[in-house]
Write a structure and sequence with these properties.
The protein starts with 32 loop residues before the first helix and ends in a 6-residue tail after the last helix. The longest helix has 12 residues, at 80-91. It is built from six helices and ten strands, in the order αββββααββαββαββα. It is globular. The protein is α+β, with helices and mostly antiparallel strands and 208 residues long. The protein has a domain at 44-77 and 110-194: Jelly Rolls. Helices cover 24% and strands 25% of the residues. Strands 1-10-3-6 form a four-stranded antiparallel beta sheet. A four-stranded antiparallel beta sheet has the order 2-7-4-5. It has a two-stranded antiparallel sheet with strand order 8-9.
């Protein structure tokens, strides 16, 4: 990440393009090589399962461009301390209020289906994926380091019914397989915690 002079209150004057009106700025190496690699995701490259953390608001929107792939959705690893607390709660079950007592049978079936993890979300080119709430807080997501997604069907892909007709047909005609191509992921987040460096670079641009 670039460094900024201490006397520059807006953080941008050091990068103004001389000879043009003072509204043109150019910042070399604005993102790291690692960040660039994560954006230009090539076939066979993956991302370890992770959660986005508390630096962002609990809503993330991702637009996929280029190749299609599967996003793996997984539960968080078990916490031994939490397991002990849950065991104690189970021992006192007679004093606890049963869960989901306000759900009818059909809603209970739907809930059980939703909680079947791990699962996969097939991200087509030009698609938008939004995660919020429990999807953001309680689950992890990642991308397997493979070149071909296999056994794609209504049973293994959570968003199968939401896929475009063209996308589903293409996967079915390919025997339930998706050969990955280079993919660009445009991720939109609402940043809660901003580093001092980023604040100095962008602080003067967002004021209205």
């Amino acid at each position: 990440m670039c460094s900024l002079p201490r006397d520059d209150k807006t953080g941008l004057q050091a990068f103004r393009i001389a000879g043009l009106p003072p509204d043109f700025y150019y910042i070399p190496n604005f993102i790291s090589v690692e960040e660039e690699a994560s954006i230009l995701q090539k076939p066979g490259e993956g991302i370890m399962p992770h959660e986005d953390g508390g630096a962002y608001a609990e809503v993330v929107a991702t637009v996929s461009l280029g190749g299609a792939l599967c996003l793996d959705v997984l539960p968080k690893p078990e916490n031994p301390a939490e397991d002990r607390r849950e065991k104690k709660d189970d021992e006192d079950e007679e004093h606890a209020q049963p869960l989901n007592t306000d759900l009818d049978e059909e809603e209970q079936k739907t809930k059980e289906k939703m909680l079947t993890l791990p699962t996969r979300i097939f991200q087509e080119p030009r698609s938008l994926l939004i995660t919020t709430g429990r999807a953001y807080r309680d689950l992890m997501h990642g991308i397997a380091s493979i070149e071909v997604d296999e056994e794609l069907n209504a049973e293994s892909v959570a968003n199968w019914e939401l896929l475009s007709e063209e996308g589903r047909k293409g996967v079915e005609e390919n025997g339930g397989r998706n050969v990955r191509g280079t993919r660009v992921s445009l991720t939109y987040r609402d940043v809660i915690k901003v580093s001092r460096a980023a604040s100095r670079v962008l602080g003067g641009m967002g004021r209205r």
